Structure formats: C-alpha cells, structure tokens
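Hey,

Quick one before I head out. I ran the complex with flavin mononucleotide overnight. Inputs first:
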Amino acid sequence: MSETVNDVSKGAIDPAALFTFSYGLYIVGTAWEGRLNAQVADAVMQLTAQPVCVAVSINKANYTTELLEKSKKFSVCVFGSDVPMPFIGNFGFHTGRDYDKFAKCSYRVSDMGLPIVTEYSLAAVEAEVIEIVDIYTHKLFIGEARTARILAQGIPLTYADYHNLKKGKSPAGAPSSVFNELPK
Ligand SMILES: Cc1cc2nc3c(=O)[nH]c(=O)nc-3n(C[C@H](O)[C@H](O)[C@H](O)COP(=O)(O)O)c2cc1C
C-alpha cells in the first residue's frame, strides 16, 4: 500500500469529526495451539445479515493479530457499561505476549476453542475468518458468524461513554487513538 497522505497532523482531518461516529467497546479473542489471547477493540462492526458477517480492525503489531492470522477464528464479547476501568485496562493496555490476561477474569473456552469472557460481557459472537484486508497499520479481519449469544442483561458500553464518562484513553495502536487529543 502507498504512504498515507491524509495524516491527522496535516490538518485536513479533524479528529472531532471522526468522534461523532458511534462505537461500542469489545474484547476480541482468539486461540492458536493452546495459546489464548484477547484485546480491547472499538473497531468492530456487523457487515451483513444473510449470512451474518462481522469485521474487526486489529493493529498489525498486536499479539492478537499474530494468533488470529493463524487460527482464522475470533470471538467478540460486548462490554456492559458497568465494566470497571482496570478490567478494560487488563485487556487494552497489556500485550498477551508476556502477560496472562485471563488470570484476572472469569472466562470459558467455547466449543470453537475460543475464549469467552463471562464477566462484564453482555453478549458473545464467534466467527470464522473469510477475508483479511491489509489497511496500512491494521488488518481488517472479516468473519462469518457461527454463534451469537446473550450472556447478561445490561446497557452496552459505548466508546463515547468510555471517553467522556470514564475518562478513558486509547493506546497508540488503536484506530481511535486520535481521540485522546480531543478536549474533555
Ligand atoms: C478503548 C480502547 C480501544 C481500542 N481499540 C482498538 C482497536 O479497535 N483495534 C486495535 O487493534 N487495538 C485497539 N486497542 C488497543 C489494544 O487493545 C491494545 O493494543 C492491546 O494491548 C493489544 O494486545 P495484544 O498485543 O495482546 O493483542 C484499544 C484499546 C483501548 C483501551
């Protein structure tokens, strides 16, 4: 892919305009040869209904990407709005390369062999990867859903509430990291 020309620092892109997009906050998990990993992502969406396809945009440097390219399957768990910040930080500010994120939470391994976080999760979707698209810093994993289940009743956490109410930040690798610079 060619060098990006629409750099935020050049002024043509106002991050505040992008922040009007609505996002949820999710844990994207995968597993390969007995190694489980999961990370926080807001760049998650449903793409189609028949069949149900979903996409996750994951930074190339992430351990999740490394495992996901091999396993070609992923889970998506939806954070409820009552999730504490340290719980988000456990999955969003550590890499699974040298840290066991699952030591600090309740989870189960599904029939598809994928991690399903059972604390502060309202729903879980599992998908098999049908396409991987290279997008500069990230890879877009498009998956066809195999299961989708409600785990608990509650209000889904939006990325806007994470930012505005919980005063949360995004690490440099997240697509939404430009929002860190917006005034509170
Ligand atoms: C609020 C929030 C949103 C995030 N969104 C994304 C995202 O959409 N895509 C992504 O690749 N990383 C995102 N991240 C960053 C990853 O969760 C983070 O880099 C994680 O440590 C990667 O872990 P890993 O190396 O174990 O895969 C986000 C983090 C936070 C806290």
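Residues 25, 37, 39-43, 57-59, 62-64, 88, 92-96, 162, 168, 170-171, 173-176 surround flavin mononucleotide (CB under 6 Å).

Talk tomorrow,
K.
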